[in-house]
Write a structure and sequence with these properties.
With 280 residues, the protein is an alpha+beta fold. It contains nine helices and ten strands.
Length: 280
């Protein structure tokens, strides 16, 4: 088994994918004795690689490497003997993994996200896109983003062609900025002008998108402001450039937000900020 995991790691490293061993429970190996309590100068919680040059794989995702000499080294031998899986640093390979942890999350992705390479996990699926972004857990129920400063289990090459990282995925981790300019007091907001390419497969695709956005806002139990903004951003990134999005659709989104306690002013601010972020 050790030979199999190491062989897999070496194969991935040769393809430019930084790898590391995982222990049972899908967790990385902890700090070695010399690095305990940050004595080595590395950063706490392994969020960023510090100046530590420890040869052991003891700094989580920051230990991921493509160097075959390191992977075969004596310092890594014990880790490979105890390893339960191989992991990789997605951003180090120029990738982002959308980790869908249950059947509901998978159903959402199939409706809301562009098709890309996928592979089955124990409870759901990994959707892999070309491009990197901020990692974040719990961006919506059952959905984690793994890219920078993160690791994902290697579960095989998957199926399908890898697509470019779409705005709708990037929007999942975006926090609402402060208003960029005073917003009008009226609730009515003009729909974006057309002129862009229409990517809707059918008219029902837009209707499903609006219905899912309403549902996401309605089901939010916390961070309502941020959820409303991220939802507006996702809707605009997918449907806002071709002219199909109407004031009726916008009014539905605003109504869902106000039902959760948002004011008309906040709805307008969030919509304006989302358009500004996307350059619309």
């Amino acid at each position: 088994m050790t030979t199999t995991r190491l062989r897999t790691a070496l194969h991935l490293a040769a393809a430019g994918v930084p790898v590391l061993p995982l222990r049972v429970g899908k967790v990385p190996f902890g700090n070695c004795r010399r690095c305990t309590d940050n004595a080595c100068g590395g950063r706490p919680n392994m969020k960023t690689p510090g100046p530590c040059a420890c040869p052991a794989p003891c700094h989580g995702w920051a230990a991921a490497t493509t160097d075959p000499t390191v992977l075969r080294s004596r310092q890594w031998a014990r880790a490979w003997r105890e390893a339960a899986a191989v992991a990789y640093h997605p951003a180090g390979a120029g990738l982002t993994v959308v980790d869908l942890d249950n059947a509901d999350a998978v159903s959402w992705a199939r409706e809301a996200l562009p098709a890309t390479r996928t592979l089955a996990t124990t409870r759901g699926e990994h959707w892999i896109y070309r491009g990197t972004m901020q990692s974040s857990n719990g961006v919506r129920p059952g959905v984690d983003i793994k890219s920078t400063m993160s690791y994902a289990r290697w579960l095989g090459p998957g199926t399908g062609t890898i697509a470019a990282l779409p705005d709708v995925v990037r929007a999942l981790t975006v926090k609402e900025p402060s208003p960029v300019r005073p917003a009008p007091h009226a609730l009515t907001v003009p729909a974006p002008a057309g002129g862009g390419e229409c990517r809707h497969r059918t008219r029902a695709y837009l209707e499903r998108g609006i219905a899912m956005a309403e549902q996401r806002i309605s089901e939010a139990r916390e961070a309502i402001h941020a959820t409303v903004y991220r939802t507006f951003l996702a809707v605009l990134s997918t449907h806002g450039r071709c002219g199909c999005l109407t004031e009726t659709h916008i009014a539905r989104l605003f109504a869902a937000a106000q039902a959760k306690g948002e004011s008309p002013r906040h709805c307008t601010d969030a919509w304006t900020n989302a358009r500004t972020t996307l350059g619309m």
